[in-house]
Amino acid sequence: MSSTIRSENALIDIGVNLTHRSFEKTLISIVNRAKNANVSKLVITGISELDSIKGINICKDLSKNFPNMIYTTCGIHPHHAKEYNSESFNNLKEIASDKSVVAIGEIGLDFNRNISTPKEQEIAFENQLQLATELGLPVFLHERDAHKRQLEILSTYRAQLKNVVIHCFTGTKAALFNYLDLDLYIGITGWICDERRGGELKNNVGNIPINRLMVETDAPYLLPNIIKKTSKNRINEPAFLPLVVEEIAKHRPESIIEISKKTTSNSTQFFNLI
Fold first, then answer.
1. Cβ neighbours of residue 26 under 8 Å, at least 6 residues apart?
2. Which residues neighbour 193 within 8 Å (Cβ) at sequence distance 6 or greater?
3. Listed residue (61, 58, 60) closest to 44, CA to CA
4. What's the CA gap between 274 and 254, in Å, rounded?
């Protein structure tokens, strides 16, 4: 199998870490391969103030060669929550004013490693939900081993928030329905391609309403297993997004084409993309 499969219909990768150091020297090639695979738009994931600015700069630097293709989120990831301070709200507000910023994120709670303390994470999370409410921007969520507390906080703000997507969902069926009950969108990555770890997600993906489904790579992380088996490549990239759609289609009633069209429509509307 070729390392790149071209999607018959245009796809949108809603979560790609183009600011990651592994892409520094190959950025143009990475985006070119995505374009050749018919991944028509990329949303860079912001994980800190500096990283969000870096995402904006990538959007600007590549806009001439790739017009209306690359966008970014703006936010402080729970791992970086200890960096959140009295100036962060206004700093993020200013960063988010750039036209390339289409959502507040990646924000949420991660109690798995607690790189920042739970209290620091909750403060940063709530303040950024307030920012999203004030700016009328959608929210790009992260959650790991913190479902109960994240749900409690999110429920408090949900009525004031525009749209919300839980990025890289890998949780239980109960967690999925809790998020769907809050009218969240669900982002699915190459995790679903993993025979060992992705079994529960394969079973759950059919429970996601098609109008709430979106796709992403989370590149350079979560390389689909099919690439691991057929290539020496160990770095995920947006060009591999069609493999995620192909795997999703194995566990849903819709065809690959139908899933491609609907996830692209969902993402376009969610992020208000051109």
1. none
2. 224, 225, 226, 243, 244, 247
3. 58
4. 26
* Count of other CB atoms within 10 angstroms of residue 231: 13
pTM surpassing 0.85? Answer: yes
CATH number among 3.40.50.720, 3.40.50.300, 3.40.91.80, 3.20.20.140, domain 11-271: 3.20.20.140
Give the model confidence (pLDDT) of 102-149 as tens digits.
Answer: 999 999 999 999 999 999 999 999 999 999 999 999 999 999 999 999
- As given in the structure block, the two tokens for residue 253 are 């009633």
> What phi and psi values does residue 172 have, to the nearest 5 degrees?
-80, 170
Nearest to 150 by CA among 160, 162, 164: 164
Has residue 1 got a pLDDT over 50? no
Contact status, residue 106 vs residue 139, Cβ threshold 8 Å = no
Residue at 198: amino acid letter: G
